[in-house]
Amino acid sequence: MVDKKIQKQFKELLSKEGLKMTSARLSVLDEMLSNDEHRECEEIFNALLANGVKISRATTYRTLDFLVKYEYIRKMDIGDGKIRYEKKLGHPRHDHMICIESGNIIEFHNEAIETLQDKIAKNHGYKIVRHVHQLFVKPINKK
After folding, report:
1. Strands across the sheet containing 105-108
2. Inter-axis angle of helices 4-16 and 23-33, to 10 degrees?
3. Which of 28, 68, 81, 137 could make an S-S bridge to 63, C-beta 3.0–4.6 Å?
4. Angstrom distance (rounded) from CA 103 to CA 113
5. End of a domain among 46, 70, 87?
6. Domain residues for 36?
7. pLDDT by residue (tens digit) across 66-82?
């Protein structure tokens, strides 16, 4: 279940947007924050239905867009025509390797890369506020 502080903040943001806190919206938030996978909307929608949540696809999509807007989750486009979502809140900054053969998404974090990116931005008079670092890979053929 979603932490009370996060739930309160979520309710305040919904109110700011003229939306009501509903059990369906709260269920989407809970589903996203309790899962570390990279999932499409349909997978999220089906997981909610499997857990007995009464929700429409439209509410699922709109709530995901809301969660992206307020940085609870991240929207990922890996170039295969499918949009995936992953938890951002409480999940450290990381990058992705995407296997072009299997579609597997591998998360990784490398402090040297993070430091270098920050240094390059600073040298140009900037601070990184958002970044997308995706490496498209394929297995090494072993002979």
Report:
1. 105-108, 95-99, 134-137
2. 130
3. 28
4. 23
5. 87
6. 4-87
7. 999 999 999 998 888 89
